[in-house]
Amino acid sequence: MSALSGKVQTVLGPIDPILLGRTLTHEHLTMTFDLCYHPPPPDQEALIHQPIEMKNRFWVQLNPYSCKDNLHLNQETEAVKEELLHFKKAGGGTIVENTTTGIDRDVKTLKKLSQETGVNIISGAGFYVDASHSKETRSMSVEKLTGIITDEILHGADGTDIKCGVIGEIGTSWPITDSEKKVLQATAYAQTQLGCPVIIHPGRHELAPFEVVRILQEAGGDLSKTVMSHMDRTIFEKEKLLEFAKLGSYVEYDLFGTEMLNYYFRPDVDMPCDNERIQSVRFLVDEGYEDQLLIAHDVHTKNRLTKYGGHGYSYILEYIVPKMLTRGISQSAVDKMLIKNPKKWLTFK
Ligand SMILES: CCC(=O)NCCS(=O)(=O)O
């Protein structure tokens, strides 16, 4: 049993899980996303280098990864601080900050934000998708990767003594690359040693979450302490969704607030709207999976902030929860998604 057993590890240190309150399990407060820059449609190149303004706000919503300015959430610490103060007023308690190595995790800023707002922040250990892996990362053994991940939780991340409290989001593509497979195996080994929570970014294919689970399980990972993120854009067919939920991991709908006509990362996929997300959540609740559900916004670009006319970090508490209640999802199920399930997942074994 580790010293962290029965605790949740925030950027300010371990806390009693009872202190978490309403928790968003998949957000970013500071990161960069140049990695995912995507050229705009033909003849719209002039907009690539424009700052976000009122006149191009809707264009940025349609083309979030084509506006360079939009990819630098790390420039908005003051706006994020205001948002966190608002989140607290709206009844929020905790945010799991999923930025890992490859997209500019900044644990010092996370610590400062937590100190200045009183919101608990839990930082993520490990590595984002292969496209962000350095040459050095790709050449590492599973043992070396395991050592780095455990170190980020036990001793501190990025040369600081600020410790991560969850592994992930661990990035995977479709098909999963060799380097990502090693990181997944390292994740499972570190989880076995530490009894810690894990969160996965699956590739954009309905088989991707199944393949991730297979690799984690073969390496001894604990699915009951693992979250599969981004289910909104990954599994659409109901039978497939139930087949996946039966495996026992948490199932996370974490793109609330994302309205996107064209989903650049997979043009053949129609990104659902929030009403459709609520219908999927209701379906899983009705099928008996309310103990495995989690929800969040996955804010990762500037246009999602209220400063730029976006929904911000309080949208779920202020708008999605009331809508869920009018659509037959009980208060008890909502409390599980926002309080009970996050608390169970985030507590070290
Ligand atoms: C770092 C943020 C991130 O990976 N978000 C997921 C976007 S999507 O793959 O669901 O489109």
Fill in the keyword field for this structure.
single chain, 349 residues, alpha/beta, eight-stranded parallel beta sheet, two-stranded antiparallel sheet, 11 helices, binds the ligand CCC(=O)NCCS(=O)(=O)O
Walk me through the structure.
- The relative contact order is 0.16.
- The protein is an alpha/beta fold and 349 residues long.
- Helix 6 (178-194) links the parallel strand 6 (166-171) and strand 7.
- It contains eleven helices and ten strands.
- An eight-stranded parallel sheet has the order 3-4-5-6-7-8-9-10. A two-stranded antiparallel sheet has the order 1-2.
- It has helices at 57-62, 77-89, 107-117, 135-138, 142-154, 178-194, 208-218, 238-245, 274-286, 315-326, 331-346, and strands at residues 8-10, 13-15, 22-27, 92-97, 120-125, 166-171, 198-201, 226-228, 250-253, 293-295.
- The radius of gyration is 19 Å and the shape is globular.
- The model has no long low-confidence stretch (mean pLDDT 97).
- Ligand LB7ARUS3 is lined by residues 103, 201, 230, 233, 255, 265, 298, 300.
- Belongs to the metallo-dependent hydrolases superfamily. Phosphotriesterase family.
- It comes from Erpetoichthys calabaricus (Rope fish).
Shape: globular
The count of DSSP E runs of length 2 or more, i.e. the number of strands, is 10
| Sheet/helix structural class | alpha/beta
> Gyration radius, to the nearest Å?
19 Å
> Given the structure, what is the number of helices?
11
Unreliable parts: none
Distance between the termini: 8 Å
- Helix content range of the residues, please? 25-40%
Note the main sheet: 8 strands, parallel
Strand content: 5-15%
Named once each, the bound ligands are: ligand LB7ARUS3
Q: Give the helices and strands as they follow along the chain.
A: EEEHHEHEHHEHEHEHEHEHH
InterPro entries: AryldialkylPase_Zn-BS, Metal_Hydrolase, Phosphotriesterase
Family: Belongs to the metallo-dependent hydrolases superfamily. Phosphotriesterase family.
Binding site for a divalent metal cation 2: 169, 201, 230
Cofactor: a divalent metal cation
